[in-house]
Design a protein that fits this description.
Blueprint: H1 3-18, H2 21-25, E1 30-32, E2 35-36, H3 37-59, H4 65-74, H5 92-107, H6 112-120, H7 133-152, H8 158-163
Antiparallel strand pairs: 1-2
Helix pairs in contact: 1-4, 3-4, 3-7, 4-6, 4-7, 5-6, 6-7
């Protein structure tokens, strides 16, 4: 997919999230290596878009693209740098989905799919499995992006994230 197609989809469904002050603050919080939470969230959303469009074209599987993009953008909306030593950051992997959900619920109107995506994206680390296909897709996309960012110390979607 072309970079412009990703930007268009992100703007269509997630402009309010991308340009919100809290989401913009995520540019200053590290996620994997040198990758910000902001860039990681865009990478997860773009990976979801790519896989969803392949599923639709090749298998006829239709997903809710709006919910998919919004849930992916907000899945790590925990609003802190978990690398900074603080007792509230302990066991971050187990608890950040709930924190992201609480922050996202406060700042944005969430549908059932987005709620499930945010709360369940850390499966199997969090024991409750995803309840909808969009959540399953985010679980996969998030792990793919995390592995790529950790191993390569960069993000293939960094250029797109700079647009916002």
């Amino acid at each position: 997919m072309k970079e412009s197609a990703y930007r268009k989809a992100l703007l269509k469904h997630g402009a309010d999230i991308l340009f919100s002050p809290s989401m913009q603050s995520e540019k200053h919080f590290l996620q994997h290596g040198r990758i910000s939470v902001f860039t990681h969230s865009i990478a997860a959303a773009c990976t979801c878009i790519c896989i969803a469009r392949i599923l639709r074209a090749r298998l006829g599987i239709r997903l809710n693209e709006r919910a998919l993009i919004r849930g992916a953008l907000l899945h790590d909306y925990f609003l802190y740098d978990w690398h900074i030593p603080d007792r509230t950051h302990r066991l971050h992997g187990f608890f950040h989905a709930r924190r992201a959900f609480e922050n996202a619920s406060r700042d944005f109107a969430l549908g059932e799919i987005e709620r499930d995506m945010i709360l369940r994206h850390m499966f199997p680390l969090n024991l409750t499995p995803p309840a909808c296909p969009e959540s399953i897709l985010l679980c996969i996309a998030d792990k793919l992006c995390a592995a790529d960012e950790t191993l390569t110390r960069t993000s293939r979607y960094r250029k797109i994230s700079r647009f916002f």
